[in-house]
Amino acid sequence: MKAQPQASHFVGGAYVEDEAGETITCVYSATGETIAELHAATPEIIERAMTSAARAQAEWAEWTPVARSRVLRRAADIIRERNQALSELETLDTGKPIQETIVADATSGADCLEWFASIAATLSGTSVPLGADFAYTIREPLGVCVGIGAWNYPTQIACWKAAPALACGNAMVFKPSEMTPLCALKVAEIIHEAGAPAGLFNVVQGFGKVGAALTGHDLCAKVSLTGSVETGPKVYAAAAEGMRHVTMELGGKSPILVFDDASLEDAISGAMLGNFYSTGQICSNGTRVFVQRGIYERFLERLAERTKAIRLGEPTDPETQIGPLVSFAQRDKVQSYLKSATEEGARLVVGGGVPQGEAFAKGAYIEPTVFADVSDEMTIACEEIFGPVMSVFPFDTEEEALSRANATPFGLAAGVFTSDLTRGHRVAKRLQAGICWINAYNLTPVEIPFGGVKRSGLGRENGKAAIEFYSQLKTVHVGMGPVESPY
Ligand code: NAD
């Protein structure tokens, strides 16, 4: 199986290569096969990307809003037309099952480009009457934005950053994760084909060093990072050196609260979606599931039944529901958490190891796993695992559940399952998280803002809120009378 792109980078509207860059090996994690070899960007490629972005941005900012909107809209249409091929590539890049990628990745990217196409056409400033004088505001682009991606949603992350950035009149240089370098190149190709000026959206490959070089570049006006809580502060600090704008989409350890009166099946569906989708590699996953004592054992029993029925397998098989993790290194990490859970006394309910059989022998597979009777201090209760590992905790009262749910440095997401309407809203209000779901989990339509509080991040992606993070206001005060001066 091969997925070798034309070249490693897409800069100035064309594929470019510089073989002097460090090798990036792209491995299909279901088989261990190398499917592509790319090169990290050299300083020359970085310079070319940043300067061509600056040139394209100056041109793009002069376009009428409706002309900019048309390009984004066309890009969305092309992505939808090519959904099958893009989804297959996403599956190879990440190991996620085609059953998921066909509905959740390129399509989500297209939704985002389409939605921000409408926003692009309607952006405007305000007018402020000041007696005889008046003032107005102009919403201006920031300039060249740098996007840095994680490996779990390579197409979606590229689009979620490109769409608002371009809608506001910026250009972007995007660095995908070195684990999943392939999909963003397709996004760049499509945005160019849709009619964007050459260099408006560039993709350069590389490890952390390339990300750091982009963040520290003189032409960089803003950095949007999707990554871990360890990388976030480093990028934030580097951006601060140049007084650059930031958006930080980082990790979490989000809680789901299931009350006695909840629909058991819906709560279990929410918990499974929020722990096993994308083989558990989702930042907003609800990995701490607090279940009220009255339904605790029933919840576990039914959850185990449903978890055992999940179909693990080869990701390109449309019947497969869970594929391997993104890499063998990630599987080692998840396995070390499974070991710590057992050593620290958690009760294994289902899963807990590597699935047996020929079909799984060569891939980075791990069974969807549930631990019960987890205590708040255990390692699996405190650290982000980024694998299909659910921790279930019993609780007695609403107050207790809230205080335990909030006792974490993270604050990306949270969920509550209850049939008591007022309790749903009361609990959502008190949960410390950027996004809360009531009787649902992990839904992230592009129309609503997404992002974290506490150590999970800063700023918001999607929704109108994203505009604030990709533009700035200029105020113009117009004096209509004689200048009053004491001198
Ligand atoms: P990571 O932090 O290791 O890497 C993220 C990106 O940052 C990569 O492209 C990497 O090359 C780059 N990078 C590393 N060091 C850098 C530096 N010093 N300067 C600039 N760039 C640097 O994260 P990962 O392992 O690729 O992704 C998993 C993490 O991402 C998880 O913690 C997950 O929760 C988080 N995530 C968050 C969201 C969100 O929207 N909040 C979405 C997806 C993933």
CATH class of the largest domain: Alpha Beta
What kind of sheet is the major sheet?
7 strands, mixed
Low-confidence regions: none
Number of helices: 16
Helix content: 25-40%
What's the alpha carbon Rg, rounded to whole Å?
A: 24 Å
Our estimate of the beta-strand percent is 15-25%
As for the CATH topology of the largest domain, it is Aldehyde Dehydrogenase, Chain A, domain 1
Structural class: alpha/beta
The name of the CATH architecture of the largest domain is 3-Layer(aba) Sandwich
Determine the N-to-C terminus distance.
79 Å
Named once each, the bound ligands are: nicotinamide-adenine-dinucleotide
Number of domains: 2
Taken from the alpha-carbon principal axes, the silhouette is: globular
> Order of strands across the biggest sheet?
14-15-16-13-12-17-18
For the secondary structure, the number of strands is 20
CATH superfamily assignment of the largest domain? Aldehyde Dehydrogenase, Chain A, domain 1
> How would you classify the quaternary structure?
single chain
